[in-house]
Write a sequence for this structure.
């Protein structure tokens, strides 16, 4: 294990929609996270998995995410590995609370995809921007499927709702800055 590497890290995996219940998506995330943790010299103590739960709706709790936060507060976890940032958060407020909590307890954070480093100001800026874009995208999708929002039935309306825009995230490394 490398000096300074987490000795009691967590893996967090989540997928919003798993109609089959086979947990294939979260299992792939967990396996990739374990591999990346090993590559970095992290010792993983626990995996926290919320399968078939959206992170967008704050009124629907994610039990494993809440347990992860509690364990960080108790000092039981010193690192968090996730597959990609949007697996952890879809609400800007949640992201901010997570950053503050991890900073307070000196918790390392990493992603398998290397999309963002929450320990740097540039990484936090990127995470905040993506979080807001994801929030906006989900709200736009909800409006597109809601006849009250899409104006369905009004003269001159198209028969279908506009297609959602897919956000492609660039893979950036710290050196890119």
């Amino acid at each position: 294990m490398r000096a300074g590497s987490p000795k009691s890290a967590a893996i967090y995996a989540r997928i919003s929609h798993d109609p089959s219940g086979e947990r294939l998506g979260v299992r792939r995330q967990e396996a990739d996270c374990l591999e990346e943790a090993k590559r970095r010299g992290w010792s993983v103590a626990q995996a926290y998995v919320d399968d078939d739960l959206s992170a967008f709706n704050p009124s629907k709790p994610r039990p494993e995410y809440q347990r992860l936060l509690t364990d960080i507060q108790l000092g039981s976890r010193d690192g968090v590995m996730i597959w990609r940032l949007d697996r952890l958060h879809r609400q800007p407020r949640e992201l901010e609370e997570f950053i503050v909590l991890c900073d307070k307890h000196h918790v390392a954070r990493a992603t398998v995809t290397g999309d963002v480093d929450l320990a740097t100001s540039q990484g936090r800026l990127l995470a905040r921007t993506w979080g807001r874009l994801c929030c906006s995208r989900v709200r736009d999708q909800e409006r597109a499927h809601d006849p009250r929002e899409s104006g369905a039935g009004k003269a001159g309306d198209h028969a279908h709702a506009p297609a959602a825009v897919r956000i492609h995230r660039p893979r950036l490394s710290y050196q890119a800055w």
Remarks:
- Residues 9-122 form a domain with the Rossmann fold fold (CATH 3.40.50.1390).
- The CA atoms of residues 86 and 131 lie 8 Å apart.
- Helices lie at 24-40, 63-73, 92-104, 121-145, 147-150.
- Residues 148-168, 172-177 have pLDDT under 50 and may be disordered.
